[in-house]
histidine kinase
Amino acid sequence: MLQNELFNNVIQDFNAGYWELYDGPEREVWSEKFYDSLGYTKNELEPKIDYFLEHLIHQEDVELFRDNFFSYRRNAINFKQHIKILDKKGNYKLFRCATNDELPVNIKSKISLVFFIEIKLEPEQDITKDNFYYKETAQMTATGSWYVDFQERKSFWDFETRRILEYADDYIPSLKDSANYYAEDSRQQAADLFFNCAMVGTPFNTEIKMVTANKREFWVRAIGKPVYNENKEIIGIRGVFQDIDEIKKKELSLQKSIDIIASQNSRLFNFAHIVSHNLRSHTSNLSLLVQLIEDIDDPKEKIGLVKEIKQISYSLNTTIEHLNEIVAIHTNKDQEKKPVKFQDAFNLVASGIGQMISMSKTKIKTDFKELNTINYIPAYLESILLNLITNAIKYKHENRDPVIKIKSYSKGSKAYLKVTDNGRGIDMKLFKDKIFGMYKTFHYNKDAVGIGLFLTKNQVESLDGKITVESEVDKGTTFIIEF
């Protein structure tokens, strides 16, 4: 029996009974106070957990108490819980059930103890309304508890863990299947966390993706810490996890919106810079020429300067047209998307530049078998193909005819378009950050304007896509569009 005198005095004051739990064979010793609080004598009850679960505890408390009790006995997982127990008069009494470490008084005992402290209710109090059980709390917060026992090489889940992961109530978790409880892209993260916790005692508190028995992926907040024995050796890991899928998806959606806004602001800043820089250069030249014309008396010289004004006017008009194209991209991005076949878009583009393809002896190889249709704005897809194909022809290698390979494919839920050529290539060390800039050219072609790739990038990004480039001088260039 208990040897802690201080605690014995407290127990008397609180009218508390207790069980002493013994191993090998497993058995319980119930205190006299436990019998007295229910009005029974020792001869009238069988002091065994099976008898208690079958005859004394209220049915709605059986499942949770059974899970808690065996987790405590076999894995030293402390708990506290409200339960209702049948007394001799046939009425249910409410008790606060708690284990050693969950009590306010320190108990110096090598024996596992479970205490039952009776709660006195006022007549008008309703037990079911005034007491929030652990089970209800776990369900309301979608929080499951678990324990991994390294000595027994077993895993233990509570009822809420099984419910969240959509497994049957009688499902027995296995360490061998532990990787299957996590989404494929989160398994390495889970392995690292558990390894560090098991080997060096590093606790964790993280967000990770899990997968249910029905293959539904969802986000959880997982918290775990090591369990030590008396020799300070790690013998297991215990923890909880909470379903935060809805919150996490909102967070990811918000972050995506922030990224889009940041991207739009960046494009707006670049656009403002382009307008300011390019238009200012034209207007400055015009102002200078007008001043020169006013200062020159020779009619012939004036006529010569007028011709230059015409050229500047033409350049200014071209720049404004390019800027209008950029504005149109962001104005038209809300156009209705519809299924577009890559082959149809390519055929339309190829027929429009047929003469250019023929004269340059360009060979174009297409492969749209894996992904033949995409939900997109048709004009954008045609424009993207047009710019990438004409660029490949314009900047062909001087020692070989152009060969362009165009392939559409999917990877996971993403759709991609890959355009590869065997042209001159681009020096990525020099021009990596300038490839998609407006009026940026990397070769010395007379007809190079530097607007095509800028427009292509804006079209792709206006619909939340991404374009990347890989290139090597004298070998060719590959553009990859992620829609």
Residues 334-483 form a domain with the Heat Shock Protein 90 fold (CATH 3.30.565.10). The longest strand covers residues 217-228. DSSP finds 15 helices and 17 strands in the chain. Residues 245-295 form the longest helix (51 residues).
